[in-house]
Specification:
This protein has 10 helices and 11 strands. The protein is an alpha+beta fold and 316 residues long. It has 2 domains: 177 residues, Ribosomal Protein S5, domain 2 (2-Layer Sandwich); 130 residues, Alpha-Beta Plaits. Strands 1, 2, 3, 4, 5, 6 and 11 form a 7-stranded mixed sheet that branches. Strands 8-9-7-10 form a 4-stranded antiparallel sheet, with helices on both faces. Strand 5 and strand 6 form a beta hairpin. The protein binds L-homoserine (HSE). L-homoserine binds next to helix 5.
Length: 316
Amino acid sequence: MKEIKIFAPATIANISCGFDVLGCCLDTIGDEMIIRKSPEKGIKITKIVGMDLPYEANNNVAGVAALALLDKLASNKELTNYQGGFEIEIYKNIKPGSGIGSSAASAAGAVFAINELLDKPFSKLELVEFARKGEELACGSPIADNVAPAIFGGFTLVRSTAPLEILQLPTLKDLYATIIHPQIEIKTADSRAVLPDKIPLKDGVKQWANVGAFVHALHTEDYELLSNSLKDYIVEPHRSKLIPEFDKIKKTALKEGALGCGISGSGPSIFTFSKGIQIAEIISDKLSLIFKNTHIESHHYVSKINTQGIKIISIQ
Ligand code: HSE
């Protein structure tokens, strides 16, 4: 194998009740990347199409994640005989600062692809560990709730970050996500800065009860429980102020039959979950009308939950 082309999916982090721990992988939104072996050692970003992003490997999320993987290889010579480096081409569709895991897709995509080209010396968990370095560059914290579902697929729970422990959760087969992405940028670091350091105990109690209920709902295929658990008492009240029309969007989505509606990652994208594609599409149409009446352009997507994660498009 000399070259691999992959689909690096968008992801929803937090999922209302699970700030920094819950995430899920999407199917219809994502970037493409081509990674090829090169005789030159190290990581070289040779092409970025679609967005204006840094080419220096140590200043690019895909580059930083890939360099973390190479460092680990260098410290354990038994993992591979490969002596060369890698070139990375990134075809971005997911806008940075969108809240649907733009940096995570690039970081996770790079390490996944290199691992494939080397005949998989690393586990998925180790790939998440490398990809987190990219997240650290992008937003100042090595968050794992976007890179984990991109690499594992489906729903994931970050049970612990030190040591890293990721739980792969089941997915409900008729569950669809609708994403509305108002075309404004909210940097994750700014969106984290509005959060309080301390939270009232009574809010914590409600929140962790809902995280447990959400996980139980996935295991028991209980749509009603899933719907009841999609509440955020801690983060949404602060971050929703940064997102135009959030309250109207949420009210409309729930009225149209959404199981829940919340901020995707650190925003400004808003997600809803629905049972069945029909409701998901109706919600998508209704929500896009809300932004049509403002000066803000919005993009909208409907997606099934992607249980595979990153997908290989071709290998040569
Ligand atoms: N859990 C992170 C946050 C995800 O909400 O800040 C960033 O996309």
